[in-house]
Amino acid sequence: MAHAWYVVLACLSGTHADLARGVLQLMGAYVSWIDINLIVNQPFMRILFELLRAPALRCAACNCLTRIVGKGMRPTEKLYLLQFLSVVDAMKQLDAGDAEFAEEVGKLANVTGVELKAIWTDKSASSDAQAAASAMLEQLLPLLLSFVSYKQSEVSSAVFPAINDILSVFKKMQREGVALSAVQQQFLAQLLPVLIEKLQYSEDYSWPAPSDAAAGDTDGSLDEDDDEAMFGELRHSLRVFIDAIGQISSDLYDSGVLATAQSIFRQCSEYGVSAERATDEGGQLGWVRAELGIYLTQAYGERLSSSKGLRFGVTRFAQPNGTSSSSTGPGASAIA
């Protein structure tokens, strides 16, 4: 059967794209339980990597490679597989400008990162294997960052599991007093502003009019609700990552989150905000940018509340006439 797959891909992929695509899908379905050596060899992989540059077949070829990389194996065997495929170097050479293909390559980068993290932290793996996995993962970090930076959320979210795993390891290192490498520190410093910017609503988004609350689904309002829900989920994931960076490096968090919010409010104060326009114009901020400043301020306050025990409540102040007034805000009695 594997030989038949090889013949189809080698001889017919150029003239019968649908047939070749079906073979790639079949390979992906079978790879989890067949002997990996039947397809992971020089002749097979040479064709598969060539198909990554064929417009009609590159998505299917990338999906097949993703399934190969994700095959359950022992740590040492998986490391050898990743080294044999040179998958990180291969991804760096791909043109992932098209959103559909970028999403597939993002999924490949994600599973590669997840597998490398698993080897790096696997106590049953040898120290040499762990060191090799860590080195490969550091080579992958710029690629993961590039996918997080994509405007399309489908592409950026494809690598979220790998980002989550990596930040989890970094948090563990911080708790144990293990210093991050220069490459890892640089990755965090570059990742944080990307995450912050992705918290912002799209400039194409428009607030639903009050009359939309009673509208049916014939006018597309339900689609807008779905978009809002999806963006809410995206924001939640981004917030988890940003908070994780805050646990790893509070100075980096402060310089990123607080500085961005201060910059936005400074511009609001100087040029004003448009409540109707999403885009910036003539120095005046659109509402999406102003909303981001409010969101970041809230996030920063919640971080202070959780990390330093700050509580917001009602503080009473004595007045000259003997009465008292209430003010909501942090006071001496509000510090836990």
Report what the structure shows:
The protein has 336 residues and is mainly alpha-helical. Helices cover 65% and strands 4% of the residues. The chain is built from 14 helices and two strands. The chain has helices at 2-11, 17-30, 42-51, 58-69, 75-85, 87-92, 99-121, 127-148, 153-156, 160-175, 182-198, 221-248, 250-271, 287-308; strands spanning 313-318, 324-329. It has a two-stranded antiparallel sheet. A hairpin with a 5-residue loop joins β1 and β2 (324-329). α5 (75-85) runs antiparallel to α7, α7 runs antiparallel to α8 (127-148) and α10 (160-175) packs parallel to α12 (221-248). It is globular. The termini are far apart.
Q: Widest sheet: strand order?
A: 1-2
Low-confidence stretches: 312-318, 324-336
**What is the percent of helical residues?**
55-70%
Radius of gyration: 25 Å
What's the total number of strands?
A: 2
Give the helices and strands as they follow along the chain. Answer: HHHHHHHHHHHHHHEE
Strand content: under 5%
Query: How many strands, which pairing sense, and closed or not: the largest β-sheet?
Result: 2 strands, antiparallel
Structure summary:
The chain has 336 residues and is mainly alpha-helical. The protein has helices spanning 2-11, 17-30, 42-51, 58-69, 75-85, 87-92, 99-121, 127-148, 153-156, 160-175, 182-198, 221-248, 250-271, 287-308; strands spanning 313-318, 324-329.
